[in-house]
Amino acid sequence: MRVLVLGAGYAGLTLARDLERRLPADADLTVVNDAPHHLVQHEVHRAIRRPAVADAIRVPLDEALDRAEVVVDRVTGVDRDARTVELAEGDAIDYDYCAVCLGAETAYYGIPGLESHSVPLKRVADAKAIRDRFFDDCDEGGTVVVGGAGLSGVQVAGELAALRDEEGAHADIVLVEQLDAVAPSFDESFQRAVRDELLDRGVDIRTETTVESVTDATVATDTGDIDYDLLVWTGGIAGDEAMGGERPAVRADLRLDRRTFVVGDADRAGERLRGAPRGEDGRRKRRRAGRVRDRRRRERLRPAARPLPLRGARLDCLGRRRCGRAGRPEHLPREGREGDESHRRGGTSHLRRGDFAGGRPRRRGTARLTRR
């Protein structure tokens, strides 16, 4: 049996390491990746300001994997009917089971001139290109436009602002976002904190601004043109070319078919094919659903032995709990009268849920519940 894992990003590497432990010894496991290392994607923006970070965020696959065979090549196509994977340079590879973990590429949404005049941020080479062009074109008074104020856009704008300040450059940094807030997929408190930090760093934030076209010197938006020297685009994601630029919707078990799976950013797991909310309305609905889900999760994780207030309960001189008038601790033992905080607050004692079994109080020492 041959199992293929296409891509060694977060999803691919995690899956491959798990399969190394779970697959039988006679199964062949092959990982195909376009580089001999795993890239810590969420740290790539740091290489704009600190190029030395590039070495630390690339993890050699032969060190991260034990038994898997690593093929360094670019996947150009997946034929699910023939169960073969096409490679840019090597021969096609047959498979019995395949997990497509190719991640996502930058989406340009068909905006005229955008792809040809902008720099994305997906790889270390992109971070280097942004840094080089910043010093070449913007050091003495240019303008950098960062398109898209999601997490990547916010990170890029922040790194460029810090680099400008460290180097004493005189560049303007403009962050453009189509929706009405920076980091629109996060909660409002996070959005405010990010916005305040960027403003403190001197970033010009323009929300509710849609990019319509790009030339070699101007970004045309629905609120006016912006002259620029460097354009960094982080405005969205699309599927890998090997998947036809699509991020297919998969079932709950991540299957495209019986023998092919799509994992990670390469798929649209959980998104409905029809009627899925889109745009800002969809984002608000997803945030609301996320808050409800988090609240329910917290309720499930809350300890079962929560104290239950029992108004008017007190202990008699034998240590037996009795129900009477609140605020009358005369029947409490001496240590209860002197140190019991609940009675000083107004005569409220607490009985734990665990004190009941089958609807009746559980004995703990000599304490028991009595009523007058």
UniProtKB/TrEMBL annotation:
Residues 268-306, 323-372 are annotated as: Disordered. Its cofactor is FAD. The keyword Lyase does not apply. Keywords: FAD, Flavoprotein, Oxidoreductase. Pfam families: Pyr_redox_2. Residues 268-283, 327-344 have a biased composition (Basic and acidic residues). Residues 284-300, 360-372 have a biased composition (Basic residues). Residues 1-244 form the FAD/NAD(P)-binding domain. It comes from the Archaea. GO terms for biological process: aerobic electron transport chain. GO terms for molecular function: NAD(P)H dehydrogenase (quinone) activity. Belongs to the NADH dehydrogenase family. This is NADH dehydrogenase-like protein. It comes from Haloferax massiliensis.
